[in-house]
Amino acid sequence: MANHASALKRQRQSEKRRLRNRGSKSAISTAVKKVFSSLGEKNADTAREYYRQAIARLDSAVNKGSLHRKTASRRISRLARKVNAQIS
C-alpha cells in the first residue's frame, strides 16, 4: 500500500486510467465482433458500416493512449483483409 502523498495520487490516477482504458478496449472488441457477425451473415453493407466504426474506435484508442499505434494498425489491416475477402 502506498504511504506517500505522491504515491497515493499516482495510485488514484492509474485506477482512473485503467477503467478508462478498459472501457475503450471493450468498445473496440464489441465493434470487431459486430464486423465478424455481419460477415458471417454475408451482409456486405452492414459489414462495411461496422468496419468503419471499428476503425474509428481503434483510432480513438490510439489518440487517447490506451492502445499502441502499431497494434491498432495491425488490427485494422487484419480486419480489412477479412472484410475485403468476404465482400469481393
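That was protein one. Protein two is written in the same sequence-then-structure order:
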Amino acid sequence: MRIGVVGHGGRVSSVINHTMRPLDPALRVVAMVDPDEAGARARLPEQDREGVVFYPTLDEMVGKAKLDALVIGTRCDLHTPYAIEAAKYDLPLFLEKPVANSLEQATALEAAFEGSRCPVVVSFPLRVSPLCTFTRARIAAGAIGRPEHILGVNYVTYGVTYFECFYRNFAVTQGLFLQKATHDLDYMSYLLDAPIVRVAAMGLYGRVFGGDRPAGLTCVQCDRARTCPESPGYRHAHQNGYWEDGDHLCPFGEDIGTPETGMNEDASSALLQFANGAQGVYTQVFFARRDAAQRGATITGYDGTLSFDWYRNTARYVRHHQPFTDDTTAGEGMGHFGGDHVLAQNFLGLIRGEETTSITPIEAGIQSAYTCLAAKASAEQGCFMDVRQVGATPV
C-alpha cells in the first residue's frame, strides 16, 4: 500500500505510524510534499526513511509516484488548496481538519468536490468513537424520546498549546471555533442527525493568554521563568497537568495578537439551533488544567437524558419516568478516544476497495467549517448568524 503525504507533521505522522500501520503493516509512505524535508523524514520509521521521495508539487507526486492514496496534514490554511487539487484525482484522501478556514475556502472546496470521484475521510474521530456511536444508537432506539436539547462541553487541559507554538498564528488558525470546535459541532450534529442552521456565539479574547511580553520570547530567555506557571520548571514542580515540558514561546507575548487584530480565544461558547428544531449549547475553555478535563455531551428528551464524558470513559442513561439509571464504562488507551482507529479502518478499507463509503465524508467537513465560520462571525459581530448549508445555492 503506497501512500503519498502532503505535510508530514506530528499529528499526521502519529496517525500513520501508530494507527494505520498497525492495521496494515505493509503500508509504506513512499512520497511526500513538505518543505521541511529533514523533519518530515525524521518522523518516518526506518523502513520508509531511505526510500521516500520528495516532490515539489502534489501534481508531480501523483504523476510519478504510483500512489494508492493521499494524506493531507499541512497547517490549516493549506488544507483547502491541496484538497482542491486532490479532488482532481480518484485516489482515496485522508484530510485533516479544519478542511477550510474561511468562507471563500469552504465554498471553493465544495465546488471542487461536486462530481469528484475522490473519496475523502475527514479527520473527525469524535463522531465515530465508541462512546459517541453508542450514544447515537440509544437515541435512534428511542431511549430519550425525541431529542430536544444537547449540551456539549470541552474543558481543554492542554489549551495553552494554542498560544505557545505555531497554533498561535491567527492567520493560520482563524480562531478556535475552526481549530477545535470543528470536531465538537460535527459530533453534536451527528448525534442529533441534523445540521446546525443558526448560531449565536461569543468569545473571551486576551483575558488569560496574550499580553505585552516581547515578541519571540521563550522561557529560557525570560526573567520570570522561575515564577511563571507556564515555564517548564514551574509546570514540572507543581504538576499543573500540562504534558509539554520543553522550552516554548511565551503565551503572554504581544505576537499572539489582540482582540482588534485577531487572536485565538481563551474560551468561547455558542447557542445552536438544529434543522430538526432541537436546540443546543456548546462551550470550550482553554485554560482548564488537571482534573478539570471534560469533553462530552448531554442529550435530553422528554423520556430521558443521555450523557457521556470521553475523559472519564463513561456514559449514563437516566430514565425520566422510571426509577432506573444505567452507567456504562468504555475501553481506554486509543487515539482520540478510539475514533482514530475507526477512521483508519475506514480509510484503509476504501484503499483496498473493501468499503465504498466514507464515514466522515468531505460534506461533513465542509458543513462543520460553515458552522464554525458562522460562530466566528457571530462572536465578532454580536448577532445571530444563519449557517450556510452544503448544497445551498451560491449567493
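The longest strand covers residues 147-155. Keep this in mind for the problem set.
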